[in-house]
Write a structure and sequence with these properties.
Blueprint lengths: L1 H9 L13 H25 L3 H4 L4 E7 L4 E5 L10 H8 L12 E4 L11 E9 L5 E10 L18 H4 L6 E5 L2 E2 L1 H9 L6 H26 L1 H24 L4 E11 L5 E12 L2 E5 L16 H13 L10 H6 E4 L22 H12 L19 E5 L5 E4 L33 H7 L2 E8 L15 E7 L3 E6 L20 E4 L7 E2 L3 E6 L3 E6 L14 H9 L5 H6 L5 E2 L8 E2 L1 H14 L4 H9 L1
Parallel strand pairs: 10-11
Antiparallel strand pairs: 1-2, 1-5, 3-4, 3-6, 4-5, 6-7, 8-9, 9-10, 12-13, 12-16, 14-15, 15-20, 16-19, 17-18, 17-20, 21-22
Helix pairs in contact: 2-7, 2-8, 7-8, 9-11
């Protein structure tokens, strides 16, 4: 049934029925109101939630869905979760009569086989009706929960064989009926979650969606339901038109890319994602046929909703940012996501880890493919860590605590045309707030020993990637740690001749005779005072490193982003002096000779490189 459900949920929806005429100014005012309401709803959730995952890390998004299931408005928490909510709400919309939808109701869904992302992403939504009792819009809130009631604490099981092992799946359940909370259902949810903070989190999601619904109700009163419907139709049509206008300016052709995940959680190697971006006039088709479909693969299954949403997150970043994010984007793009592949798995496949990989590889492949024709807009909206080191324990009262490992770090911040990689994270995690050492240490029995950028971990290029960091942490009490390591063999890819980022690595019980490197997935019991060290890969480079200004390379060496050895070997820049004495200078003649030598060895022409870079 799963493939049939996905086809039905993803099918194009018709405009809302309305007799109202609307002008562009009024439509834009209502569009702005939608975005503000989403922002208010999401901020309410962030401030009211109990867990650090939501109120500190910001792992939540708000969206408004219209009565036909079309995305009508958004507010960005994490960009990569921007487009995941609509399909779960569409499943609920298929059961409006059976489930007795009415004013004051609140629903929740998280089932990967019924339009959801992975299980930890709970989607709470509240319908809004007009004075005649007709459904107009739905306020939805999506947030990552720290536990899902599965066989392993924390919701991520590296050896799960199906969805049921990962936790409780809810296609659609009513949490509030006509304004009154359903105690029985909420007790089931709370009873099947190990985190004591969950009761506060689910209440924050309910109240946040109710706030959005109340504000939407006021908007309907002010403008009238028919005008709001007309504004939704207008804005969706305008987004589709503007996206198609951008695509029409691209050269026709098929632009393809292949990316790989090192292995699944049991060691099956080189898990493959293939994308072909086909431009034909104003029509863009993103065809993922050829992506891995080996039935023996474990825990690299991404939900259909996630694959669809991650693809659009990358595409939306490659067009004019003023184009409004709504259903018009999906109307303008044809997506082919092969049934039975890791990007649209068979029913009941475990999908929690798939939201890391292969989800991000979808965006990476699209970026690599379209960088052939859109270099000025090519920035991979991806992170390449398998998963952070999740450290889980129980206090004296037997209550679980979870340090999710989303610590301050630098990783995956790739270069783009004209700009070196910068900041601490890739742009696709833009609003994610990483845990400060003081915050984590006040909540959990951990000490953060160091978080230092590491030299030569950013990919070399005409514009270089930001270096990654080595995060070293001591566990003060016996705990369980869970991790899945990838991007050691296949790190973040460089663009247009830029070097790949440095690989990731991870060690447990560092400095003891039991120290070991994490080669794949692990669920380990760590003793008190165990030290773990996670090396995050940096960002990738853009265009050939032989085109980088030698003086910029000299500055990178003085800043300790790049070593003198890498300056010579990767950039072809000969330097004199030493970093210790701060007297590093470029040897122009030596640099020219070395670059000509390296270009010949690499089978490229410096002249051709320079001309290509200038274009």
């Amino acid at each position: 049934m799963s493939f049939e459900i996905n086809r039905r949920l993803a099918a194009k929806r018709s405009p809302l029925d309305t007799a109202a005429e609307i002008d562009s100014v009024t439509a834009d005012i209502i569009r702005g109101a939608f975005e503000t309401i989403c922002f208010e709803s999401a901020v309410h959730l962030g401030r009211a939630a109990s867990s650090a995952i939501i109120n500190q890390s910001n792992e939540r998004n708000a969206s408004i869905i219209d009565a036909h299931g079309r995305l009508a408005g958004v507010s960005v928490g994490i960009p990569q979760l921007l487009f995941i909510s609509p399909l779960a709400v569409r499943w609920g919309l298929e059961h409006v009569e059976e489930d007795d939808w009415g004013p004051g109701d609140v629903f929740m869904g998280n089932d990967p086989d019924h339009g959801g992302g992975h299980l930890p992403d709970y989607n709470v939504y509240t319908p809004v009706f007009d004075e005649q009792g007709e459904l107009v819009v739905i306020q939805a809130l999506q947030a990552h929960q720290g536990d899902t009631g599965g066989k392993d604490p924390g919701g991520f099981s590296v050896d799960a064989v199906d969805t049921f092992a990962e936790g409780m799946a809810f296609p659609c359940v009513k949490l509030v009926h006509r304004g009154r909370q359903r105690r029985d259902i909420l007790e089931v949810l709370i009873r099947n979650n190990r985190l004591p903070s969950f009761s506060g989190d689910i209440q924050a999601m309910i109240s946040g969606s109710q706030l959005g619904a109340r504000l939407l109700g006021e908007l309907l009163e002010k403008w009238g339901a028919d005008v709001v419907r007309a504004a939704v139709n207008f804005n969706i049509d305008q987004t589709e038109r503007r996206f198609r206008e951008e695509v029409a300016r691209w050269p026709d052709g098929s632009y393809e890319a292949d990316v790989y995940i090192d292995h699944d959680t049991v060691g099956n190697e080189d898990v493959h994602v293939h994308v072909a971006c086909i431009v034909d006039g104003d029509q863009l088709t993103v065809d993922m046929s050829g992506s891995d479909a080996r039935p023996e693969l474990m825990n690299v299954w991404n939900t259909f909703s996630n694959s669809r949403g991650y693809a659009m997150a990358q595409l939306a970043s490659m067009v004019d940012p003023s184009i409004v994010k709504n259903e018009g984007l999906f109307n303008a793009v044809e997506m082919v996501i092969p049934e039975g592949s890791i990007l649209q798995p068979p029913p009941r496949k475990p999908a929690a880890l798939g939201a890391f990989h292969p989800a991000v590889e979808v965006g990476e492949a699209i970026c690599i493919a379209l960088s052939q024709i859109l270099p000025e807009r090519s920035s991979p909206q991806v992170y390449k860590l398998g998963m952070p080191n999740s450290v889980i324990g129980f206090d004296e009262q037997g209550q679980m605590w979870l340090d999710q490992g989303v610590d301050v770090r630098a990783s995956d911040a790739s270069a783009t045309q004209g700009v070196d990689g910068w900041g601490s994270m890739c742009s696709g995690l833009g609003n994610l707030i990483l845990a400060q050492a003081e915050d984590a240490e006040s909540r959990f029995p951990v000490i953060n020993l160091s978080r230092e950028m590491t030299t030569d971990t950013g990919g070399a290029g005409r514009w270089r990637g930001q270096p990654g960091t080595l995060n070293v942490k001591k566990i003060l009490e016996p705990t369980m740690a869970v991790a899945w390591m990838v991007s050691m063999k296949h790190p973040l890819r460089g663009l247009r001749g830029g070097d790949d980022a440095a690989p990731y690595s991870n060690h447990f019980e560092v400095g003891s005779e039991r120290e070991y490197k994490i080669e794949n997935s692990v669920q380990a019991d760590l003793p008190a005072d165990a030290v773990i060290a996670y090396q995050y890969g940096g960002g990738a480079g853009f265009e050939s490193a032989l085109l980088r200004d030698p003086e910029q390379v000299c500055e990178d060496v003085l800043d300790e982003y790049v070593s003198i050895e890498a300056a010579r070997d990767r950039y072809g820049v000969v330097l004199t002096g030493s970093v210790e004495e701060c007297d590093v200078e470029v040897d122009p003649a030596g640099t020219l000779a070395l670059r000509e030598k390296l270009a010949a060895e690499r089978g490229i022409s410096l002249v051709a490189l320079a001309e290509g870079g200038a274009r």
